[in-house]
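Would you mind writing out the residues of a protein together with its fold in token form for me to study?
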Amino acid sequence: MSFTLRGLSLASGLASARMVGGDREITSVTADSRAVGAGSLWVAMPSARRDTHEFLPDVASAGASAVVVREESALARAQELGLDAILVTRTGREWHQDLAQLIAPVCGNPGRELELYAVTGTNGKTSTAIFLAQMMGCQYMGTLGYGSPDALSTLENTTPFPVELQNLLGGMARGGARTVAMEVSSHALEEARVAGLGFDVSVLTHLSQDHLDYHGTMEAYAAAKKRLFTEWADVARGLGKQPRFALNISDPYGAAWLADVPDAITYGTADAHVEVHASEMRVDSMVLDVRTPSGSFRVRPGVGGVFHRENFASAIAARVAGGASNADLEQELARVTPVRGRFEPVPNDLGLDIIVDYAHTPDALTQLLRSVRALQPQRIIAVFGCGGDRDRTKRPKMAAAVAADADLAVVTSDNPRTEDPHAILQDVVAGIPTGFPHEVVADRPEAIARAVALAQPGDIVVIAGKGHEDYQIIGHTKYPMDDRDLVRAGLEARR
């Protein structure tokens, strides 16, 4: 199917926008000047680093049909280059809303055509969304990448910006996908990156301190999350969908939001619609006793970690909201396997229990370490750090969380980015109580090797913070680094 800029502007409600030309055929859309070809609609996305209008000559030479620009001067320049062009002048989240409406038809209107499960919250988004994708046998999009859960391609952002997001979802639909389980970040909701998408089922895991460097306050952070259940519910209705919701009412925010989302499926408390208990805990499995409005059942998924009980509860509540029966749920939960970097055991023949996990907030560390403590180890040795250029106030809180629930801490670098790693470590160590056993090893490979060297059978070593990530960000550069590989190197050094 082909489109024209004039037709797209009429369909999107941007008919009054300034335009030059508008009748050339458009067959694709991209924000990457290097991906432009004949028939492309190129979008000059806003950027803090450079004026992307500089690429107009390049996209003209590459054969673009049309462009979306943000300034009058760029509109004139596009006309000089013989390009069809439309001027979209609104900024911020309104820019994303206008853009998504304009380009969605070119991408196949995936927000209308796909069944979309949206997962938001501070911790548990990734595991819940992956569990949902495994349970339903559908596509996933989020922190771990996009695609089939067992064959993911990488993403730069948990929730991409509109051009990439619409293209990826459209590609999934063209490839035969009917359902996508996706993480939706607070940044994406605040910035309206998900404009044009109609979420069929939305679930809140829970909220705790994170991203205050961006949002400023917990209130603003929570307000951004709440948009999924209010603003985007209205968008879904506008697309002809009947949005459904699942709220964790053990979380104060989820409980409060129930007043505005009264038809939500609830979970997290004894009087909720869905209740999930875990027993027979092992590193690699657990038994779940599940109660839904349809009755009760027991199942043993092949995933360990007490905190995953909450992630299973989130996924189960979302599926109940989506119309799944208990029989469906029993079959679906049996398909779930461990999520990469989420309570992921590192197998070895030395009799050592070592777990890699993405926990990088105070609350996530507490949940992780208490899950490990439930396995009754002799000692918990925790390796952790804090990322640079991020919320500094949580650094001592993370140290306090480790001191409360571990026996020994090895404090190290996470992704220092543009900050001095040693300055970050000073902020972290300030939260460790006097007398708590700890070591400070700035070099992450050395820190992990040290923890592995200290471990004895019966101990559990927890490597926290990076989980699935296979890189370390120093400055603005990503260097290859995978905690699993570092653990294996430490194990080899013990031989």
Summary: The mean pLDDT is 94. The first strand starts at residue 3 and ends at 4. The two ends are 62 Å apart (CA to CA). The domain at 344-494 is CATH 3.90.190.20 (Protein-Tyrosine Phosphatase; Chain A).
